[in-house]
């Protein structure tokens, strides 16, 4: 084959490769959009069902969600499974806007070494490992939440301290936004990976991203948990905050601004909670 013919063939192959990559990228974005839409719809449906079930009024002027206890004849196992399912759906709705850019960076890093089919498999492995981390965190959250719910139901004096404890947790979560630890976690979440295009590397990367992500937004997740896990307005605000600090050019500055708002809100809650406590 003459050099001009080889050059034409090579150019055609490169063009076909770029077209395949663009097509794969469009499919990926479309799947992510569908998943986000489905997770938002499921979150709205679950929130509506929880609102219909109501909440338990507690000493100290607050109400406890029935998320944390068996109701209507349900067993603890069924309650835990329901919570984990709700947790995963809610986390998908909240984390996808900030996780998709991470997946795009990963795909850009390995696209030259993987065909579209393999790239899709590697993307699923990264996403699956990421989901494993959040599932484990959901199990831990339910165990802690159910234990605390049992305690406050048993001891009314402890229940009266909950508004004060919530204020302190939000204050600490806001302060965490200013820490170097938070800045490091945020930098890890925003970094472009340098990886090999193999399954083991993709799985390890997904686990690492999941751990960094959970740590990075740990304070904001704690605010959501203690201030109202089924509050759609708060959920939307936390989602916007997590996404902004991940994708904004000045993410660290955005994180500090969010921290300042959280600290200010915690101060107002403390003023209200101290008389009640």
Report on this structure:
The chain is mainly alpha-helical and 277 residues long. The protein has one domain. It has helices at 3-53, 76-110, 116-154, 156-160, 162-176, 180-190, 199-216, 218-228, 232-247, 251-276, and strands spanning 55-58, 62-65. The chain has a two-stranded antiparallel sheet. The model is unreliable at 7-16 (pLDDT under 50).
The number of domains is: 1
Silhouette: globular
Give the class from helix and strand content and strand pairing.
mainly alpha
Count of individual helical segments = 10
How much of the sequence lies in strands comes to under 5%
Tell me about the largest β-sheet. Answer: 2 strands, antiparallel
Summarize the helices and strands and which ones pair or pack.
Elements: H1 3-53, E1 55-58, E2 62-65, H2 76-110, H3 116-154, H4 156-160, H5 162-176, H6 180-190, H7 199-216, H8 218-228, H9 232-247, H10 251-276
Antiparallel strand pairs: 1-2
